[in-house]
Write a structure and sequence with these properties.
The chain is an all-alpha fold. The chain has one domain. The protein has three helices and no strands. It starts with 20 loop residues before the first helix and ends with a helix. The model has no long low-confidence stretch (mean pLDDT 96).
Length: 68
């Protein structure tokens, strides 16, 4: 499963579910270097996950990808 390769698995998950700009930036930085970023993003979009950073995108950013 792709989740076992995700860089976030060793991070505090709170980073990925915060609205603080510094934590959002940190989460996106982690995602940008992750080998399974695309799978994570696809998972969040396919499952309509409304919270958190997945694949380096917030929910609003993911929503705009779908609408584009």
């Amino acid at each position: 499963m792709w989740q076992f390769q995700a860089m976030c698995r060793v991070e505090d998950s709170e980073i990925f579910f915060s609205e603080l700009a510094s934590k959002v930036a940190r989460a996106k930085l982690i995602c940008s270097a992750c080998p399974v970023q695309k799978q994570c993003l696809d998972f969040a979009i396919s499952n309509n996950i409304e919270e958190g950073i997945f694949g380096g995108f917030t929910f609003d950013e993911r929503k705009s990808l779908v609408l584009a």
